[in-house]
Amino acid sequence: MPQRLPQRLLHALFFIAASALSTGAGAQFHLKTSAAAGSSTVATPHVQAELVAQAPDGVGPGKPLWLGLSITHQPDWHTYWKNPGDSGLPTQLEWTLPPGMDAGEVAWPVPRKIPIGNLANYGYEGTVLLPVPVTVSPAFQAGPLAKEVTVQLQASWLVCRKECIPEEGTFTLQLPIQGTTALHAAAFAAAEQAHPRPLAAPATDEGSSAHVEGNALAVKVTGLPPALHGQTLEVFAETTGVVETAADVVQQWQGDTWVARLPLSPQRSASPDPMPVVLAHGGQGWRVALPVASGWPQVAAPATVSPALEAALRANAADAAGAPAPAPVPAGLWLAALGGALLGGLLLNLMPCVFPVLAIKVVGFARHAQDRRAHRIGGLAYTAGVVLSFLLLGAGMLALRAAGEAVGWGFQLQSPAVVAGLAALFTVIGLNLGGVFEFGRMLPSSLASLQARHPVADAFLTGVLAVAVASPCTAPFMGASLGLTATLPGAQALSIFAALGLGLALPYLLASWLPGFARALPRPGAWMETLRRAMAFPMFATVVWLVWVLGQQSGIDGAAVLLALLVVLSMAVWALTLRGRGRAVLAPLSIAACAWLVWTWGPKITEIQAEQAQPAIASGAWQPWQPDLPGQLLAQGQPVFVDYTAAWCVTCQYNKQTTLAGTDVLRDFAAKNVALLRADWTRRDPAITAALAQLGRSGVPVYVLHAPGRAPVVFSEILGAQELRAAIANL
Amino acid sequence: MPTLCRRSLIATAALLAFATGASAQTAAVGQLAPAFTLQDTAGKTVRLSDFKGKYVVLEWTNPGCPFVRKHYDSGNMPATQKAAREQGWVWLAINSTEKASGDYLAPPQLAAWLGERKAQPTAVLMDEDGATGHAYGARTTPHMYIVNPQGVLVYAGGIDSIPSARGADIEKATNYVKAALADVAGGKPIAAATTQAYGCTIKYKPS
Hints:
By secondary structure, chain A is of the alpha+beta class.
């Protein structure tokens, strides 16, 4: 063994010398001919670029061959990676090769982040080699006498310091077919070393993944080499226009898993799935294609008001002004919206889901019917309560909007916790109305009498309650007005909410000031107590509806837990009305049971059910709506009708059971081959929110008929069969 | 009436209103376009709100950038401006190049450069401190935005679909602003609402 080692060394030395000789010969040969057939180098004031090759075994079928463009930058200048970042262009290579030779993709070495102010680029400074693997197939025939083969490259690159210069060059290189070409072997080896290695993703669920979390992409990468553990990694997204190039990446190691949050660009222009990312450290890189779990949210759709709606708004403006308004001046539009909001508020009094509140109002009314002065003050206080609550809701919605949340009017009911809370609340109200308990007994007597002694505060709070109960029932008539608030400055938007509240309070206010209006009301008497008891039933009916809504969101388990909770809650309320030992034993017991239920089973209620139970199942002629579906169907020439609905929207359910279930209507739809799509907004769905915004609406119901080449028709919220059939007949 | 319930409702409403705070954010498609007040090259004050009720195209420009020159020297940008103006749209060219940059052109020179190329913007606005550029998240020259009559940003991205500095590519590329003009004229929403802007980095004043 010891003797063999020198022998091997000798062999190796001989081989190296031989290859050096032959490369030298090749290089000389190349130098000799390059003058005649073009150059392998291009020099500009900013870069020195050279076409180089690596063919250790000569050029022939199956033999390894690499070509590459070597760019040496002047100090401070740079060229770009495949994703150039916030600006710039990747260097482009176009090859002209003999038949049988095929150039692959550029094997980009790991780039470097080049910050410019608060923007950043990915690129290269100093000297970089962009290698390209070339496959030589048996189709390659150089001819019996050929000694070399000619390759040509047309390259274009953008070289920048602060200013940018687009440059290009044509390169020609002769490669010896038989000899070795390895003059730039070291550079090719270094480039290969710097090329990101694919990361073998483990096949289990524990593998690398990404998911969108608000304005960031939460990333988890497993299977990185142990040497990297604990190190801070550089991150390069391969797709342009997805992440904020300049932003710092928050990252940490959790055991051998690397987790990070990549801030997304607010003007994201691509949704790659999987999302290719290069992680780098110390000049080496690892490439991983991250599956985007639960997909990308739809890139915010353009919130344009449909032409039909715009025309309607203009018509409203003309009506409200009482004279033909010439152009849609902003003030005119605003007045129209105010008028619409006032009208919507008035109609809100008649909507089915405001009914329980109307009942409360009637009870409150009868109480003050004999005292004119108290009556008027009560009316004003109620109005103040309603308007202030609407302003509060409006301010909340504006704040949520500003925070970029995909919210709509009625969004409260998309959260299971809010639905459950409301169900509990209505149960307690129902128990109170039904006479199970009086508040005087539960509250300290001072508080109870405080309420009695301050009818003004009482009226104010009744107004607040009216708003709280009315708001979930989307005030559909002001869909357009509300859509408009998105585009209005804060003060104007809030004035629209105030008008909405005023409309809701107006009947009560009128009744309190105009004796004629008030006189029409029945006198107080024993019937009041009967009425109060009777009012318990609409309350319990509301609870039934809320439990049904929750069932849509959290499934049968969530609904069952809620019902159990309501039973225990009712028991607790009842126990508190008892006296003596019964109360001492039962009250703490039932309250404890209540707390235990919330603590252990509460999550069942709030957990949103998995996809499979989504109510968007095709039923009958209806198909579930998808963001691109209407466009695709329209492109095929098929008219499309979309029903934007939600389980918690009473008007939607009413229309669904009546007009939309009508055999005449369905027959008309079938006759015109209209595709029927149902967009279910029961749970928060950004794609549907965006589609609604596109129609200038922020709540449901919305009914739209799209026909190829025509403006979409938006129908009124209480959908009439005649209106619908007339529109279908027009197709 | 149940005071207890009312109290909790008030608390809930208050929570809803204040649980989420507003945060300053870069412009995004589908949201209100940031307001701005800038001087044009003649020193006149121009506000975005002056044009409420009309579509407004915002074009970030810098004659020192080869990508901007590609679209002006070829006549592509002026032709796009002309098409937009003919459809009743407003076109505001905005220059966010800082005064210290070698690319900076004083207002008269900038107006002259554009005039020589038969540019037809409604106004050319100076944003030397870069505040408006930052508010829109403008990164490159050119970088294009479209604001709808309601003041909502409906397009953000490039002038066309082929990122290159070669004039020859203009013919092969899809001009996104012209596509938006056609979409709006046809009563349709803008199909390509966010695209990749390409060009030179804007020479912002260091912050």
